[in-house]
């Protein structure tokens, strides 16, 4: 996704997508699920594994992951009887690029964020289920 240099230059569709993507991440379970998917890389993770790792019921996970899907920041595919979710790295890089564009006095070389999903993943913190 090609983005212009300022929010004022964005079409309303681009701005709407950015707000939708950020809103989808603005919940502890969705953020935890998304971080797991980023860690998993392009192969993604089965829905049941995500639910178990973040400590939510599978039905609750479905609700949260659907928000991420509608925002266009994750993908899904069926593998036999399982639904596999994966982070959309191009969308993630576009979102992060938008957020940091014009940082560092517009010296883009010093703050260009790009995720290389081929690199080994680091450990993330799983948010415990709230009561």
Description:
The protein has 131 residues and is mostly helical. It has a domain at 11-100: Winged helix-like DNA-binding domain superfamily/Winged helix DNA-binding domain (Arc Repressor Mutant, subunit A), CATH 1.10.10. Helices cover 47% and strands 11% of the residues. It contains 5 helices and 3 strands; from the N terminus they run ααβααββα. It has helices at residues 12-25, 28-40, 47-54, 58-71, 89-100, and strands at residues 45-46, 74-79, 82-87. Strands 1-3-2 form a 3-stranded antiparallel β-sheet. Strand 2 (74-79) and strand 3 (82-87) form a beta hairpin. The longest helix is centred in the N-terminal third of the chain and has 14 residues, at 12-25. It is globular, with a radius of gyration of 16 Å. The termini are far apart. Mean pLDDT is 81; it is low at 1-10 and 120-126.
Main attributes?
single chain, 131 residues, mainly alpha, Arc Repressor Mutant, subunit A, three-stranded antiparallel β-sheet, 5 helices, 3 strands, 11% strand, DNA-binding, DNA binding
List the helices and strands and how they pair.
Elements: H1 12-25, H2 28-40, E1 45-46, H3 47-54, H4 58-71, E2 74-79, E3 82-87, H5 89-100
Antiparallel strand pairs: 1-3, 2-3
Helix pairs in contact: 1-4, 2-3, 2-4, 3-4
Pfam families: HTH_20
Protein name: Helix-turn-helix transcriptional regulator
Keywords: DNA-binding, Transcription, Transcription regulation
């Amino acid at each position: 996704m090609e983005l212009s240099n300022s929010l004022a230059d964005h079409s309303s569709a681009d701005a709407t997508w950015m707000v939708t993507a950020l809103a989808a991440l603005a919940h502890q379970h969705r953020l935890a699920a998304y971080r797991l998917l980023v860690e998993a890389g392009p192969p993604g993770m089965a829905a049941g594994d995500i639910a178990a790792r973040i400590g939510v019921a599978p039905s609750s996970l479905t609700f949260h992951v659907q928000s991420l899907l509608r925002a266009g920041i994750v993908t899904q595919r069926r593998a036999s009887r399982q639904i596999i979710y994966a982070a959309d790295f191009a969308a993630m890089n576009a979102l992060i690029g938008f957020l940091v564009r014009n940082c560092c006095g517009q010296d883009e070389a010093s703050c260009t964020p790009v995720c290389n999903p081929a690199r080994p993943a680091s450990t993330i913190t799983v948010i415990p289920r709230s009561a």
